[in-house]
User: Fold these one by one.
Assistant:
Number 1:
Amino acid sequence: MNVKIQYTIDLEGVPEEVRRLLPVIPDWKNDLGDIYSALEGEVNLLKVMEDIENIRKSMLMADTRLADCQAILEGYNRVKSGDFDQAPAPESAPEEDMSQTLEKGREMLKQLQAGMPAPPPTEKQENDTAS
């Protein structure tokens, strides 16, 4: 399972931090060469499929790290250029989901209120009824 991490560094240290985060890319050319060779003659399909799966996992890890570096540099570029208006909007639920959630909350409130005794009158209400 992958998790996102977040930490703070000085703005001028961002490029160096991205350099540190860049993935070390394995030489997939050699791995693919091994797969080509393994597909000649007697083929161990399970081994070939395992090798392919390992290459794909390695590529996914590299792609994920590159996407992280790209997102960091996009934010860095926005700050350096003073273009704060283009910050990505926070993800939010679609309006219909929010209205459904609100309606469910109202229904739950009604159910709770129906099962609760009436609250005692406030001091103002007691004074109004006494007059």
Note: The radius of gyration is 30 Å.
Number 2:
Amino acid sequence: MGRDEEKVFPSCKSPNHTLASAIQLLQVVYEKLKSSGPLGRDVLSTAMGHTSSTSGAVGIKIGSLTHYGLLERVSNKVYKISSIGITILMPRAIEEKKAAVAEAARSPSLYQKLIEQFAGQGLPSMLPNILAREYRVSAQSAESVADTFRATMEFAGLLQHGVLYKQLPDASTVEEKGLGVPSDLPVSVSRSKEGDPAPKTVRGIAQGEQYTIPLSRERVAVFHLPLPLTKADLTRIKGWFDLMGEVLIESLDEKTKSAPPEVQDKDDNS
């Protein structure tokens, strides 16, 4: 396709919130109302902490929830929590929750098109420009839209090691793909003594600060924060741990059950 024939898609709206933030918002609404609906816009706005159901902030929040398929419109200004939303809030198993989160991440129409375009490869560093030129996203919001898309795909497990997937990949798929990076960034690859490629590093991305968290049995967890870091970035990180905490705990419980007895005893006595 020549430059004069570049593809331009119809303008697509997209959520203003990351999926992690939208799910947090849904949890707040459900915990306050103890109901999946039908829920009027005025009831929703109160549960979200707003005094007016006509405020722009309420519309943006409801819009994000509907983009991700977490809320469904029943009638004019009346909504209900969708089956996807219920599954995320009250999963019967870890895999069910993971699948529902991935489905929600794929729900926005813009995200569907981006996944179709970039599946199996790294997201380009110039994604904001692509959004503005090919998807008619305003230049002023293109960077924010790109950041929200990237954060949502990572949160849902559809963007792993820089590679974007249509479906949740299993461990073998990720291993075969290797560590993906945007195709238009320079990459340096070092090799081990055996000649196997070491993990790829992307220039300009790995800068940041590393924190060590002491754990039991003289182990440590290492947490890397890229710099510069914004308050919004910290909110996304906190949202991921808040939501995925129960999933991780349940997953670890299953691994502990299958571990040798001596390992289980050590964990129990830690």
Note: The beta strands are 39-40, 71-75, 78-81, 159-160, 163-164, 187-188, 201-202, 208-214, 220-226.
Number 3:
Amino acid sequence: MRWYLAGRMSREKELAGVAEALRMQGHTVTSRWLQGGHKFEDGEFAQANFVLASHAKLALAPMDAYQTLKRGRGIAFDDLLDLQESDALAYFSSGGRSEEPSHPGRGGCHAEFGFALASRKLIVLVGAAENVFHFLPSIHHAIDVAAFLELAEKLKADL
């Protein structure tokens, strides 16, 4: 199976390990964000938002801010293409983990979950439910990574 792994950026290293475990089981992982280079820093968000606000006011923003906006859009398109190339999404919830005050979540993984849901992909929630959409009957549940890897093996065998 081809899997897209979605989770908080702060879990990138952990999920890269999960991706490797899936590959060892014979799966493919389409999530390029786990290979690095897709991180968008807080300062970059401020720059990109400045461009958007400038457009709303019909003002000009500095050229580097436009480059930042372009990079952000590129990251989003890459992630959606990777998700589109997958058969299934594994969504790794925060599981009640507290947010780092300096790096609150921005919700990209929630958008990926919604995209997968709308695309009728197989979805596995790994960890605790975070919103009502995680309770839909089409969502498979795994309590932790070990349970997910066991379920992924079963799903592959069922194909």
Note: The chain has a mean pLDDT of 86.
Number 4:
Amino acid sequence: MNFFTPAEFVENYALIGEKKSNAPVWKLFLLGIFVNSAFLGYALLEGKLRLLAAATQAVAWSLGSYYLTLFSVGLLTLITEWRQISCRPIKKLLYLFTFPIFILTYIPISIVALFRNVEWTPIVHSFSVSLQDIRKEPIQ
């Protein structure tokens, strides 16, 4: 099944990779959170303490495992690209811990995109900066 011409495939390779690699993961994550949250709500309404404890643990486990998965991806990227990331080592490590939270913002954006007509609009840039110009500035 061809979605793109060869030229469009090259232009949209990152988009295809994103859909094939991350989409199933966040869909399973959302399904797990939804099902476990439904059990959590039921346990709260019915006053079932054992189910409440299990559902709370399941929601926490889902969030924690997704965070650790994204953290591992960020750690692997940080290790392989350490020299190419232009900032102080302490910032690199700080960004490593905030990377999963940043990626989690993709989920609500994707949900909204399912129900709204989203169109790409180009951003007009008024000036350009080269990599050499960026590296001339002191690293803070």
Note: The chain is about 75% helix and 0% strand.
